[in-house]
Design goal:
Elements lengths: L7 E4 L3 H7 L17 E5 L6 H9 L17 E7 L2 E7 L9 H16 L2 E7 L6 H11 L5 E6 L22 E2 L8 H11 L16 E6 L6 H9 L17 E7 L2 E7 L12 H16 L2 E7 L6 H13 L2 E7 L6 H14 L7 E4 L11 H13 L4 H14 L12 E8 L4 E6 L5 H15 L7 E7 L7
Parallel strand pairs: 1-16, 2-4, 2-5, 5-6, 6-7, 8-10, 8-11, 11-12, 12-13, 15-16
Antiparallel strand pairs: 3-4, 9-10, 14-15
Length: about 475
């Protein structure tokens, strides 16, 4: 956040200095990782109501839902809990065995989800019945060594329950009637899910004390976010297509980089302002913003082969305002020539002056160029984001800075900075106790010197002022 947006408050008692020194130290402490949870994969053909049912099972609206087939494209994990037990629920795109092109890639994601799950939930539209696609899916699932549950959706009232009897023909056991829209039968289905899931998952990937650091991968549509994620993971983790806007839901992936496990979230490209977007794009924008808020560091992907667009600026501003650490990754570097490099230098000086502190890397998701530099950039940014300066060190440093360059006179008086403390980390936030208002230019000067002397690379810095109240004179 810019120092222009500094919070200003007042103080009157020097005892507040002692309280300020007891600022929240817990911000810098890592929380213990929760034990790994078993995984349930939700599969079925397009538009049978999988995402609606997922929202019902997890008890919140997270999966993007729209009355159009093919909204969900990647496999998307959600944390769920029922009767005191945790499990991970993986929503998938529509599965069509004979699909081609983009639909084939979506179907492949569903197959990968089934391979890594501990149990599988096949969702069938009870009002349509078993189609040739469901029969083909059922043949595959009968050969699986995973427990398989069968949910008949869109059973919104008692009259439709009889229609589910025909689904016995799939050979997957008793079809469970449920309504994702109204919640009918969802409790019974959740009980059956807990019986089918093991206590612990078959595979524990990337588990470590403190949990993986959370990274949001953001940028405008078709800038190469999913391609970069696939390059980092070494597999087709996200659906990639030349059509902009292929990713809709945020996609979580555990990625091993330089011997460290990271949790990357591939997000939908931000095409419009949230207030002017509609339907699927509106909810995708909200989830992208939520993914940034839930992350610790954001990698903003920018197309290096094109001039910086307003969308790029808006995404960077969103990350900056959220107070997250920032890495700018210029993708498609293999398409950049000498003229474009000169133009980029001018763009950096003109358009990115407010985030000159961000880490920058030049990469190519297509060729793999310099993707190994992303992990060191992430570590540098997070170290700055976590950094705390002891109060004594901070005040000794500030005294030297102010002695060399005093604050400008305001209203005929020169304000004094009496005391300073770091109120919190993540992002580093400093409070200055003063006798008068400090000009924005001087606060920017303090921020710049903090960055230079304490190496706050890749992290925003927030500076708040507390101006001493004027005491009333007794007449």
């Amino acid at each position: 956040m810019s120092t222009e947006d500094t919070e200003t408050e007042t103080w009157s008692d020097e005892a507040e200095f002692a309280l300020a020194e007891q600022a929240d130290d817990a911000a810098g402490e890592a929380t213990e990782a929760a034990p790994p949870a078993p995984v349930l994969a939700v599969v079925g053909r397009p538009n049978v109501g999988k995402s609606t049912l997922v929202n019902r099972l997890i008890g919140r609206r997270e999966a993007v839902v729209q009355d159009v087939p093919g909204v969900t494209r990647d496999r998307v994990a959600y944390d769920a809990q029922w009767n005191g037990r945790r499990f991970t629920l993986v929503d998938t795109g529509g599965w069509e065995p004979d699909a081609r092109g983009l639909r084939a890639a979506i179907a492949n994601q569903a197959e990968l989800a089934m391979e890594t799950a501990d149990a599988i939930l096949l969702v069938v539209d009870a009002q349509v019945g078993a189609t040739a696609t469901e029969e083909a899916v059922a043949r595959t699932l009968r050969r699986s060594d995973r427990p398989v549950l069968l949910a008949a959706t869109k059973v919104d009232d008692e009259r439709l329950v009889a229609d589910t009897a025909s689904l016995w023909s799939l050979g997957l056991g008793e079809p469970m009637p449920v309504s994702g829209l109204h919640g009918r039968g969802s409790g019974d289905l959740l009980d059956a899910i807990l019986r089918a899931l093991p206590e612990t998952p078959r595979e524990v990937v990337g588990a470590r004390a403190g949990g993986p650091r959370r990274v949001a991968l953001v940028g405008k549509p078709n800038v190469g976010k999913s391609s970069l994620l696939n390059r980092l993971t070494g597999e087709q983790r996200s659906v990639v297509d030349s059509v902009a806007g292929t990713t809709v839901d945020p996609v979580d992936s555990l990625v091993e980089l330089d011997g460290q496990t990271w949790r990357f979230v591939d997000t939908a490209g931000l095409r419009k302002r949230v207030r002017t977007a509609s339907g699927m794009e509106y909810y995708a924008s909200l989830r992208t913003r939520s993914a940034i808020e839930a992350a610790e560091v954001a990698v903003v992907l920018v197309d290096a082969s094109e001039p910086m667009a307003e969308q790029d600026q808006r995404v960077i501003s969103m990350v900056e305002e959220s107070g997250r650490a920032l890495v700018l990754a210029y993708n498609k570097w293999d398409l950049v020539d000498e003229d474009r490099r000169l133009a980029m230098k001018r763009e950096l000086e003109r358009d990115l002056v407010r985030v000159q502190w961000a880490e920058r890397v030049n990469v190519s998701a297509l060729t793999g160029r310099a993707v190994s530099k992303i992990a060191p950039a992430l570590r540098t940014a997070l170290e700055s984001w976590d950094r705390r300066i002891p109060t004594g060190v901070l005040n000794g440093w500030l005294s030297d800075v102010i002695a060399a360059t005093p604050p400008p006179v305001r209203g005929g008086k020169q304000p004094k900075v009496l005391f300073a403390t770091q109120a919190q980390a993540r992002p580093p936030t400093f409070v200055l106790f003063t006798t008068g208002f400090l000009e924005a230019s001087y606060r920017r000067f303090i921020e710049r010197r903090l960055r230079e002397d304490f190496d706050f690379v890749g992290s925003p810095i927030r500076i708040a002022m507390r101006v001493r109240e004027k005491r009333q004179r007794n007449r």
